């Protein structure tokens, strides 16, 4: 598909120094008091509470799912998170806890995290997860194919997985840390969106370089431009390495000043994270009680 | 044919202006006598025409490679060497002709070195390529001293870097003879333009001319005129090299070149 | 919508005295007459400062002359240590100075905090290191200082312009008399205090506050050896005329009307940031501001849409709020000039656009503004507005872009946006401007020479080149 190639290579370039400077400048925004309280609750609702470990057990996943529903048992005004994200094998366990709650159930599929499996395996993985109750699928692209310039292969895989998803939303993980350049991040974003992604996601969290502000900025610009051109809105999910409230708020500022209100919702923006939630809860408590919170007062699930 | 016993009558030469590579008379039709020679007396309109010629020649001359400009100036030295007898006939001592030739050779060599001496990379605090390099100022008006060495010492440093000049000379026969050298060397027309006449009459028009970028007052010997010219030059903020007694036999240093160089600094980010 | 709550920087870190005298020979001495300096964001009077008279200038120049004998004779390594000391004190007092600068000038605290003050300290640090290395600077084996430097600086970057003037002068062994701008005298007076804190010998730095006349006394003073001026081209011309025939050395950093050229292969999002930074940084009170946007016609519509969207996120208001992007216009007079030229822009048929933004009731404010449909013949494309007003022109080919960019008596700076290296280098070669930013804009560094071609002045500030202005 030489059309695809020329389209992706016809996208405007990204200047590394410029995009990093812009992201850093937005990172200096000061969000305090009432604005911070609003931001924290929004961020909690955007969390894809995640466990993706070889050591995951049904017990662990049940506890995590319970926490997703009521992140702060001591405070009923605390909103639930956006979704729980687990391996396909754990989907039925999480589904038992979450069903009917409104908290989404996401599952990584398609030979996560490497993506190095035959397509029929990836599709079976996806169908299993959806059959088990997942309404969101986080797939990984084949970075090898992308870097080799085989855009058609990546495109076709996404199309196939999207089809296997049925009604479930498809998040496409670009693994931006392995794409190495912002130009590639922009191209991969467009490639995923053209192939039908409902969300584009930065990372698996399994490689050293995961979500960063400038990478997310480039992806936000991509979804903004894609909607302007096609009318279809696509969500964005930074994942990996976002651990503090301060970090999360920087991402919200990024959305606010790049794509605006339309993306300031859990339907269009998620944080793939595990430890972030507790920091958000501690900061939330600090704002309501007026004193600093301690980790002993928050559940470790 | 019978041989005449009368001595042969020599052909007298009129020293004409040098503008845009040609040798016109003054548009005013005026001439004046200098040491018995007829010399064109330049007017303000000649100055105007010379500026037009200098401006027209400037971009291409500046865009020539430094190597090329160096060779052109070296060729001038070769041609002066070949015509040294003409300068001697005008009263220029042999030592001075030698010095003028050597000075031309010195400046010829500077063409592709000055950027390395006057420019440099700047280690800015950030991921940027940052380079400062000299560029010619543009069209420079030069009020030249009368001697050959003086003339060469104010013209060569200005043109070797890519400027073009309009010279007002107080030593007309020497200047026009140099013009004849330039015309038969490889200097493109318009790079050097020479006006013979009175500095007091012509220089103010160059000093106030909006399309002249610099002014070298080395050859101005009237202090009041120097001040007047410097004030006029302020109108468009011309770069001015001030009048002063100059020992042209001394090492000129870089100042004659850097006076008519601009520093351009280019920034570019560095990132994959 | 994510609203940012007010995030004011604390004003209490800076104590402004009700009045200030002139800093001459190491002491503050009262002036005969005084004038008020105000906060342009609120019109509140901040302090009363002395209006320097000819006698005051005499005293200051005399003090500088006396100090010159010993200061210039000190080993460079000793002068260096004073400058390093000053740099350190500035770093330590940077929050206080940033707040002060924003109060007196109206610039956003994020700029005074993240741009002005770090650059001020870096500038002193850079030139401190030169003081004992002058023979290696390339201006001859035994360079000498010039003597007393009379320096006049503008109001747009008060402390940074002071640093650009004073640091190289002192490093080279000169002494100085500096006149800060009439509307922004305070940070220079705080700098005087820093000189005392650093135990700089009396008379090496003298600060004479005042208006235009005070500056004129200074540059015309017969015992001044060197004049350095940053400001308008008109005043620069007058100074060049007045210095003619005196033998004083002169450097001028004057106005600009920079072209910011965007080619169709530009990194668009970064170009938009560069355009915004180019013209709205410091309310457009920047001599090198990218005030003429030259955009390739084939992408003009798309680029303008992006630019307008981006401009809509600019936060205009309280300079002390950490989230403010565009602060107050520095003075009523400057606001009047910006307003007048903008009205002329409309009258001449250009189309004016500003994002919706509510401006405070008190103080001097001007919404970020762009004019489209501008041609080279429009006054807003030729005259320096020195405010947050961008004129947008289009071009079709590189030659046309270069021709339009150079079609001005100014030549201070220019911008190029393109992803094609050879195009950038070729265009940069042909632009008649002292600073060319390619795929970036409004970047400054103490190591990097800054200054103009043509009527933007002569001489360079910053870098090795910046020393030349203070050495013989």
Search tags:
heterotrimer, A: 301 residues, alpha/beta, TIM Barrel, eight-stranded parallel β-sheet, 13 helices, B: 272 residues, Aldehyde Dehydrogenase, Chain A, domain 1, five-stranded parallel β-sheet, 42% helix, oxidoreductase activity, acting on the aldehyde or oxo group of donors, NAD or NADP as acceptor (chain C), Aldehyde dehydrogenase (chain C), oxidoreductase (chain C), Ald_DH/histidinol_DH (chain C), Ald_DH_C (chain C)
Describe what this molecule looks like in 3D.
The complex is a heterotrimer of chains A (301), B (272) and C (472). Chain A has 301 residues and is α/β, with parallel strands linked by helices. In chain A, 50% of the residues lie in helices and 11% in strands. Chain A contains 13 helices and 8 strands. Chain A has helices spanning 2-9, 16-26, 33-46, 58-69, 91-98, 119-131, 143-147, 151-165, 176-179, 182-194, 213-230, 245-258, 276-289, and strands at 47-50, 83-86, 104-109, 136-140, 169-173, 199-201, 235-237, 271-273. In chain A, α3 (33-46) runs antiparallel to α13 and α4 runs parallel beside α5. Chain A is globular. With 272 residues, chain B is an alpha/beta fold. Chain B has one domain: 3-Layer(aba) Sandwich (Aldehyde Dehydrogenase, Chain A, domain 1). In chain B, the strands form 3 sheets. A 5-stranded parallel beta sheet of chain B has the order 8-7-6-9-10, with helices on both faces. Chain B is globular, with a radius of gyration of 20 Å. Chain C is α/β, with parallel strands linked by helices and 472 residues long. In chain C, the strands form 4 sheets. Chain C has a 7-stranded mixed beta sheet, sandwiched between helices. In chain C, strands 8-7-6-9-10-18 form a 6-stranded mixed beta sheet, sandwiched between helices. In chain C, strands 1-5-4 form a 3-stranded mixed beta sheet, covered by helices on one side. In chain C, a hairpin with a 4-residue loop joins β4 (33-39) and β5. Chain C starts with 18 loop residues before the first strand and ends with a helix. The chains are: A alpha/beta (301), B alpha/beta (272), C alpha/beta (472). At the B-C interface, β5, α9 and β11 of B face α8, β17 and β18 of C. Chain C: GO terms for molecular function: oxidoreductase activity, acting on the aldehyde or oxo group of donors, NAD or NADP as acceptor. Chain C: Keywords: Oxidoreductase. Chain C: Pfam families: Aldedh.
